[in-house]
Amino acid sequence: MARFLTLDDLGEVKGKRALVRVDLNVPMADGAVTDDTRLRATLATVTELSDRGAIVLLLSHFGRPKGIQRPDMSLSLVTRAYGGVLGRPVRFIEDCQGPGAAEAIATMEPGAIGILENTRFHPGEEKNDPALAAAMAELGDFYVNDAFSAAHRAHASTEGIAHLLPAYAGRAMEAELKALERALGEPERPVAAVVGGAKVSSKLDVLTNLVTKVDHLIIGGGMANTFLAARGIDVGKSLCEHDLGAVALGILDAAERANCTVHLPYDVVVAKEFAANPPTRIANVHEVASDEMILDVGPAATEALADVLKTCRTLVWNGPLGAFETSPFDVATVALARTAAALTQSGSLISVAGGGDTVAALNHAGVAGDFTFVSTAGGAFLEWMEGKELPGVQALVR
Predict the structure, then answer these.
(1) What is the rounded distance in angstroms from the CA atom of residue 137 to the CA atom of residue 157?
(2) In-domain check, residue 304
């Protein structure tokens, strides 16, 4: 695993200015934060640095202002909520670079915490402008990146600045990187991957990379229909990318060459309409009627997948097996998630999951806390599964 420095490598920090890149891009409604997951993810790093006497300066984006100062995307809107989650006073600083910010920071005492204004108010942020990165770096003595969810972007506050100051991984970033290394870097074998979701096209690179890395690839969601159709199975009215049949067959061929077993459902739950609790039936995949759509994996296939997980030591999960948001098409996802959670809790399985839909599905199943690690990162987790280098992570490697 590539070597990166952590907070354990920091020396004396009392009175030093720590520029900490976090992800405070939280959903809001009527002026209130509706999900504080990302705020809570920063607490370990921020409290540790504050307790050690550093002046903690938080850098983050918020929304997509595209280089324009927009009051509705000011991080001042998040400051009070963050202070509430942190349980400590938090100051808002009206810029993330320049003399005004420097003057405000100069009045801060050791242990104080401040949120700098939205980095994306500056056009140079998303362009990774060296001048902006240098202006930000002038405000700090060292840099900590604790925002894995933004690590797939080479921006001034995620990548550029890391080359200008001593750079460290925060506690959340450290936990994420260690979990990902255990899952696909140097995993205990056999390794299984669950990949679900609506479309093959959105996860082509993931599937192509995984067949060379895992022993079992479990494909669910709408994308399973594309693979079934590619094998000549009539999937009726199901969501299916028929134009990607050749691509799907290519992935299956690559898996065979790599000794990766691909698991597709052989019994499915079908309905004539996609709605809550419609009339459904369980069908063999060869018996789907032309006016029916596949909306979940069937019970026999789900049980067989559970048996596969019982033979594995490591699991990576991204995406649901069925249309889990709508009952009763959540049954397979919930059942397999609970199996994975039980195996994890018994010590026989290392389970790493990530992506927005996946986190929602695991929460729905009541088992998110029982997996070894659940990443809240969306795009960054997906790009990691694609085997891509993440600029924000690479910039930390020493």
Answers:
(1) 9
(2) yes
Here the CATH number for the domain that contains residue 274 is: 3.40.50.1260
**Set 185, 356, 378, 387: catalytic member:** 356
The DSSP result for 185-202, as a single string, is ISPPSSEEEEE-SS-SGG
Q: What is the mean predicted confidence (pLDDT) over 19-28?
A: 96
Q: At 176, which amino acid appears?
A: E
Find out whether 268 and 282 touch, Cβ atoms under 8 Å. Answer: yes
Neighbours of 329 (CB within 10 A): 24
Confidence of residue 356 (pLDDT cuts 50, 70, 90): confident
Residue 180 lies in a domain: no
Q: Is 395 contained in some domain?
A: no
Q: Which of 51, 66, 47, 58 is nearest to 18 (CA)?
A: 58
Calculated CA dihedral for residues 372, 212, 209, 38, nearest 10 degrees: 10
Q: Are residues 325 and 191 in the same domain?
A: yes
In terms of residue numbers, what domain contains 83? 7-172
Euclidean distance between CA atoms 144 and 166, whole angstroms: 8
Residue 356 falls in the annotated catalytic set: yes
Known catalytic residue at 379: yes
- Cα(179)–Cα(336) distance, integer angstroms: 21
220 is annotated as an active-site residue:
no
- 1 pLDDT above the threshold of 80: no
**Cβ atoms of 54 and 13 closer than 8 Å:** yes
Q: Which tens digit of pLDDT belongs to each residue from 144-180?
A: 999 999 999 999 999 999 999 999 999 999 999 999 9
Entry pTM: 0.91
The confidence score (pLDDT) of residue 377 equals 87
Q: Looking at the 3D structure of the chain, how many domains does it have?
A: 2
Which of 98, 185, 379, 387 is labelled catalytic? 379
- Read off the pLDDT of residues 76-99 as tens digits, 9 standing for 90 and up: 999 999 999 999 999 999 999 999
Q: Are residues 96 and 219 in the same domain?
A: no
Residue 1 covered by a domain? no
Task: Please name the residues in contact with 220: beta carbons below 8 A apart, sequence gap of 6 or more.
Answer: 194, 195, 196, 265, 297, 319, 320, 321, 322, 332, 333
Checking if the pLDDT of 327 tops 90, the result is yes
Pair (164, 275) in one structural domain: no
Both 196 and 141 in one domain: the answer is no
Single out the catalytic residue among 17, 21, 38, 153: 38
Catalytic residue among 199, 281, 313, 338: 199
Q: What is the pLDDT of residues 176-216, one digit of tens each?
A: 999 999 998 889 999 999 999 899 999 999 999 999 999 99
